[in-house]
TrEMBL record:
UniProt lineage: Bacteria, Pseudomonadati, Bacteroidota, Cytophagia, Cytophagales
This protein's name: Malate synthase
Organism field: Hymenobacter arizonensis
NCBIfam families (UniProt xref): malate_syn_A
Domain Malate synthase C-terminal: 420-540
Tagged with keyword Metal-binding: no
Length: 541
């Protein structure tokens, strides 16, 4: 039969293995990623590991019930031996020894090229905090990563041609966290785990190529809450290597320590992943968010204005030093985190002040013993590089064992003093609504008031408003109680401010009212909603 009328021709669709269904849009380019064999691989990962993922998420909820009942997080008695015994993680490959400056960014094509060319040691391509997981972003991101691995990635725009330099940063990939699902790929009628999809597609398409190039697939693992979640990743890695017949080309992964419970299981997380470990990283923004989420409504742990929760407040200083000490004892890197300042255009004085803040942050990290750090923007690579080149003379400082560090369970939760002000409350409302509107529009990382905002930083803003609204006795510095009436009276003013800043047309095109409604649901809910991106995903096109 021939089809003369194109309307009658069958619509092209993906060829899928049995009981795997794709409900995202089709394109021939996407089909190069979503091949039957790649889908069979990710479906197999999901069938083998999803029930454990679900059980671990349920365990998070059980632990939260304990925290809400006043039981504070503590080091685990059952893993005392792992903390006390001497052991180190497996040796690192040469290309992971020097990671002094790492740039991060979403998996957008231009940004991948710019990041790889930025002069940084590592580029962490991000499918998590900085990526709004539209179907297009997720699959196009995999196309971009495939082309980056093969060094064929390029881009032609009316103003500039983009291609890779001779020397580029080492690529690491951050799949989405265990809590997320990908609604466009169904396995046995259920949405696939987003972590397993992101990991699995990247591994399937690139592992052989990376190993043939003398490297290996390297990952960043986000938002883990326990060593059992690290064990799950370890099992996934083992299966993936076996399945693609690459037992000797070891996957390596850096775990972000960005939840409060994980800070109590640093040794255990490294131990679970000891064959695959490329150390730990201080994911400071999610860590603050997790502190608020897990310690919740206990007034002893109520945090002041977001701007005052810096890396030098007691619980943040304690955690970052414990990460450094633990990693160095186990023979592996402790990577620092992200300063939120980004370069400021058209205002040299403000720009220099922002760069100086980044510089001071990197000096603190290098002096404390971090083996590298993160930057959000290519313009910050030279700033961080200068500091680490000056203060870290070898490829890393794992030999600096930081035996002076003594951190107790109480230190890890010690809250800072400080005020909650109307300005702080308004800023949280403003930033969270702007960010959610951007995310719903498909962009997961934006500059707001000259700071990088992504899912982790926005979560702090929404969690603080929730905490201040629901913790009994919360008052502003001027003595007024933080109430639902006060919060709701401030929202219209913030929306008007956003409209005045971006103009009526951009405001009407954006999804600000929808974002404000979602924000209201998030902060007014009696029960803390685990992640804003979960209800937001239901509204993501
Ligand atoms: C809490 C965490 O999880 S941190 C990790 C997640 N967050 C991130 O990765 C932050 C990534 N950074 C970004 O997305 C951006 O830097 C933003 C949104 C903060 C600022 O973006 P913009 O305002 O567009 O930056 P700006 O206009 O100064 O960009 C200038 C150039 O640098 C590029 N650029 C900016 N940031 C990056 C980056 N992180 N990686 C690669 N290129 C970048 C832009 O693409 C642009 O390129 P062009 O000149 O070729 O057009
Ligand atoms: O992912 C990093 C963070 O700070 O959160
Ligand atoms: Mg994070």
């Amino acid at each position: 039969m021939t089809f003369t009328d194109t309307a009658l021709a069958p619509k092209p669709t993906y060829l899928t293995p049995e009981r795997v269904k794709i409900i995202g849009s089709f394109s021939p380019e996407f089909a190069e990623i979503l091949t039957p064999s790649a889908l069979a691989f990710v479906a197999e990962l999901h069938r083998r590991f999803d029930s454990t993922r679900q059980a671990l998420l349920a365990r998070r909820a059980e632990r939260q019930a304990d925290f809400a009942a006043g039981i504070l997080p503590d080091f685990l008695p059952e893993t005392k031996r792992i903390r006390e015994q001497d052991w180190t993680v497996s040796p690192l490959p040469d290309d992971l020894l020097d990671r002094r400056v790492e740039i991060t960014g979403p998996v957008e094509r231009k940004m991948i090229i710019n990041a790889l060319n930025s002069g940084a040691s590592v580029f962490m391509a991000d499918l998590e905090d900085s990526n709004a997981p539209t179907w297009e972003n997720v699959v196009q991101g995999q196309i971009n990563l495939r082309d980056a691995v093969r060094r064929t990635i390029s881009l032609s725009t009316p103003t500039k041609e983009y291609r890779l330099n001779e020397k580029t940063a080492l690529l690491m990939v951050r799949p989405r966290g265990w809590h997320l699902e990908e609604k466009h790929v169904l396995v046995d009628g259920e949405p696939i785990s987003a972590s397993l999809l992101d990991f699995g597609l990247y591994y399937f398409h690139n592992a052989h190529e990376l190993c043939a190039r003398g490297s290996a697939p390297y990952f960043y693992l986000p938002k883990l809450e326990s060593h059992l979640e690290a064990r799950l990743w370890n099992d996934v890695f083992g299966f993936a290597q076996w399945s693609l017949k690459l037992p000797k080309c070891l996957i390596k992964a850096t775990v972000l320590i960005e939840t409060l419970p994980a800070a109590f299981e640093l040794n255990e997380i490294l131990y679970e992943l000891r064959e695959h470990s490329a150390g730990l990283n201080c994911g400071r923004w999610d860590y603050i968010f997790s502190y608020i989420k897990r310690l919740g409504l206990n007034p002893d742990f109520r945090l002041p204005n977001r701007a005052d929760v810096t890396m030098t407040v007691p619980f943040m200083a304690a955690y970052s030093q414990l990460v450094i000490q633990t990693c160095h004892r186990r023979g592996v890197h402790a990577i620092g985190g992200m300063a939120a300042q980004i370069p400021i255009k058209n205002d040299p004085a403000a720009n220099e002040a922002a760069l100086e803040k980044v510089r001071q942050d990197k000096i603190r990290e290098a002096t404390n013993g971090h083996d590298g750090t993160w930057v959000a923007h290519p313009g910050l690579v030279p700033v961080a590089m200068e500091v680490f080149n000056r203060l870290m003379l070898g490829p890393n400082q794992i030999e600096n064992k930081r035996l002076d560090v003594q951190v107790s369970a109480a230190d890890l939760v010690r809250a800072p003093q400080g005020a909650i002000t109307e300005e702080g409350l308004k800023l949280n409302i403003d930033v969270a609504i702007q960010y959610i509107a951007s995310w719903l529009g498909g962009n997961g990382c934006v500059p707001i008031y000259n700071l990088m905002e992504d899912a982790a930083t926005a979560e702090i803003s929404r969690a603080q408003v929730w905490q201040w609204l629901h913790t009994p006795g919360t008052t502003l510095a001027d003595g007024r109680p933080v109430t639902a009436e006060l919060y709701r009276s401030l929202v219209p003013g913030q929306l008007d401010k956003i409209k005045a800043q971006i103009g009526e047309e951009a405001y009407e095109k954006g999804r600000f009212l929808e974002a404000a409604r979602l924000f209201d649901r998030l902060v007014m809910s009696e029960e803390f909603i685990e992640f804003l991106t979960v209800p937001a995903y239901e509204q993501l096109a």
